[in-house]
Task: structure prediction
Amino acid sequence: MVHVNVYYARVTEPFPNDLLLTEVSGALIAALQGMQPRDMPPANVRDMTLGQIRLLFLLQREGPQPMGRIAEVFDLSTTASSGFVRRVERHGLVERGHRSDDRRVVQCALTDAGRRFLAGVSGMRLDLVRQRLSTLEPDELAELGRLLRLVRERGAQLA
Result:
């Protein structure tokens, strides 16, 4: 299992139906907790932080990134971003190198091992969630899907 350090932002304004919201949120978390993947990732990558995993997804989505951009995205100084990337680089999931068109620019890229790691993590999570959801009847599953679409749509309106 990949251990992820998660930061929970403080809620500054009360939600309507706060007690029900807390109860349902807790039930959803409880339903998905304890899911153990069948294929564990290598021991050296089990303790990745959420930020480090976010870096991998950023590189997967947008390709190699200059160190300055990584510092900007993660709100780090250039020195801190170098240490941040170095910790992921030790796992063999990213590599740093000079850009071919401008040797002054150091960029970070996902390695093949990093791509395999992300595919494994994403695939394990999807399989585990599918396994849990398979306990629902078809009409219950359709209703859950409808409700999750509502949450996504209304959440997008808040952003």
About this structure: The chain has a mean pLDDT of 78. The beta strands are 65-66, 94-98, 106-110. The radius of gyration is 19 Å. The helical segments are 18-32, 50-62, 67-73, 78-89, 112-133, 138-158.
